[in-house]
Design brief:
33% of the residues lie in helices and 17% in strands. By secondary structure, the chain is an alpha/beta fold. The chain binds ligand 4H7.
Length: 245
């Protein structure tokens, strides 16, 4: 997977080059190319922004500069993503879908955003990472690159993706490591039993319990066995009892 990141602040992406993603780039599983939009300004002062027609506060990134920058990286296989608060909300399904692409061009807006004409011309999909406002699209772009890269084949050493939150539609079960007793709190007995069938059952139930408590709406979308449905009903009864107290 190749990412071309179009940004006015390429130095903001240093952290993404570390850790898992760093190793994946060294092993040529992914390639991250940072492109400085400012390099495409024809202005002698390297200006990339201008005032909005119609007036109003702030500055907009110019369509022509962004377009020239895009043209320097585009390919027949590229999909262009624009990170903005108006976009479709990023979720696990979208992450896994994007991981199948060969070439993602990730456009980061700054200031008050980008002239609408170049967005209409080049952007395939507008994506938001959540309902809050940021000063630029760079942090959302990093969230996108990190989440999508994990789903590119060969990026994760041992494939834990099947067990993690959202992949099976549920939240993750709690996990424990040494010491066996911490501040008087013990590791659940079953996890020390070595009985793998019981451990799997316990973990599945914990996943169901955590999801029921924190994100009950997620349960509507998962296929549950009859036993699991009974387990949820019992959680529901306990929950109602607690409400009465
Ligand atoms: C594109 C268009 C993404 C990028 C507008 C970007 C939140 C998200 C930005 C803007 C982002 C997200 C312009 C919106 C300035 C905010 C005060 C950069 N914020 N801006 N406004 N949720 N900001 O994914």
């Amino acid at each position: 997977m190749k990412f071309d990141i179009l940004t006015l602040f390429p130095e903001m992406f240093e952290p993404i080059k570390q850790s898992i993603i760093g190793r994946a780039t060294k092993e040529n599983k992914i390639e991250i190319n940072l492109v400085n939009i400012r390099d495409f300004s024809k202005d002698k002062h390297k200006k990339v922004d201008d005032t909005p027609y119609g007036g109003g506060a702030g500055m907009l990134m110019r369509a022509d500069v962004v377009y020239d920058c895009y043209n320097s990286v585009k390919s027949s296989k590229s999909k262009v993503i624009y990170l903005s608060p108006k976009g479709n909300r990023l979720n696990q399904a979208k992450v896994e879908e994007l991981a199948k692409e060969e070439h993602l061009v990730v456009l980061c807006g700054h200031y008050e955003g980008i002239d609408q004409r170049v967005i209409d011309k080049i952007v395939d999909e507008e994506i938001s990472i959540g309902d809050y406002v940021l000063t630029g699209g760079e942090l959302p772009a990093m969230v996108l690159v990190d989440s999508v890269s994990r789903y590119v084949d060969g990026v994760l050493a041992q494939d834990s993706r099947l067990e993690e939150s959202f992949s099976n539609g549920l939240l993750e079960y709690p996990q424990y490591t040494r010491p066996e007793i911490f501040e008087g709190m013990e590791v659940p007995e079953v996890l020390k039993s070595g009985h793998h069938k019981n451990i799997d059952k316990w973990r599945r139930e914990q996943s169901l319990r955590v999801t029921f408590e924190k994100r009950p709406e997620l349960l509507e979308k998962v296929d549950l066995t009859e036993d699991e449905q009974k387990f949820i009903k019992s959680l529901n009864k306990d929950f109602k009892k607690k409400e009465e107290i």
